[in-house]
Specification:
291 residues; alpha/beta; four-stranded parallel β-sheet; three-stranded mixed β-sheet; 12 helices; globular
């Protein structure tokens, strides 16, 4: 067994608890008790060839199980998921074990996939940054996002926001973000004009493909109802406006998009938690093309 695998499950369970997802934490704890089982799925996990933390191995496994529930392929497993009461630890482990045996090929396939969490709540921070840039430049923004996944955050101006006592954006949007706010009220302009927007990802997701929508939903933790609702709303917006993300590396994308100055717009590069996953070489190339 890869000695780092049990630790990765323990760490991820702890992070889930600290972020308000006790069910997902219990699920990963239950899975960790199965690592010594002699079946193909648990053997693949236990003998993981890479770094289980960097590869988000526990979340790959959690996504595989959640996908079975979302597609109504396993009634026994679904009965253990929210909004149903969580079974006791030993019972939950037994349910997971039986489900893995029934869906061996499915689980092995999902273990090959790197989780993508196109977290819409991060748009609140993007709004603050874009607002500051618009005030400084006085020009419409041309937004370029790397690691954009399905491009959901490219639609930041189609969301509604409540930041402290300030309301911004579309009152009728299916996505409303109201993060905890402390300190002075932000200075938000009435509007942040966007001239155009484009996203890049080495493995982009297409919101018009059912399998890709399932992936986005499956990697959301099953006991985070608000997060799942935000995701559904953002997917509906992206489908409505025709969001597309190009399959291209961050360095090549930035080299092309920032090769020449743009007149009449402020060209902006953004990301929502992808920078640390880029190699130092790619980071250096991106920084070079921004100079």
């Amino acid at each position: 067994m890869n000695a780092d695998v049990p630790t990765s499950f323990e760490k991820q369970a702890g992070w889930c608890r600290s972020l308000g997802s006790p069910f997902t934490a219990n699920l990963l704890d239950a899975a960790a008790t199965l690592l010594d089982r002699d079946d193909p799925v648990m053997r693949e996990i236990a003998d993981w060839k890479g770094d289980p933390v960097l590869d988000a191995l526990p979340l790959r496994f959690a996504g595989a199980l959640h996908a079975l529930v979302l597609t109504e392929r396993d009634e026994g497993l679904a009965a253990a998921y929210p909004p149903n009461p969580t079974p006791a630890a030993e019972k939950l482990a037994s349910i997971v074990s039986e489900s893995v045996k029934r869906h061996e090929a499915h689980c092995l396939d999902w273990l090959k996939r790197a989780p993508q969490t196109n977290e819409v709540a991060r748009a609140s921070l993007l709004l603050l940054g874009y607002s500051w840039l618009y005030r400084k430049a006085g020009l419409p923004l041309a937004i370029r996002e790397i690691g954009a996944s399905a491009g959901l955050n490219l639609s930041f101006d189609r969301f509604g926001y409540r930041l402290g006592n300030q309301v911004w954006g579309l009152a009728y949007s299916p996505v409303t973000l109201a993060p905890i706010w402390e300190g002075p009220q932000p200075r938000l302009p009435p509007d942040v004009p966007v001239a155009d927007r484009a996203g890049a990802d080495i493995e982009p997701l297409d919101v018009n493909m059912p399998s890709h929508r399932l992936a986005l939903q499956a990697y959301c933790w099953a006991d985070q109802e608000l997060r799942l609702a935000r995701l559904a709303g953002a997917i509906s917006i992206a489908r409505q406006i025709g969001t597309r993300v190009e399959k291209i590396g961050a360095d090549a994308f930035v080299a092309r998009e920032f090769a020449e100055p743009r007149v009449g717009v402020a060209l902006v590069l953004s990301h929502t938690v992808v920078w640390q996953y880029l190699t130092e070489t790619v980071q250096s190339q991106v920084e070079l093309h921004l100079q």
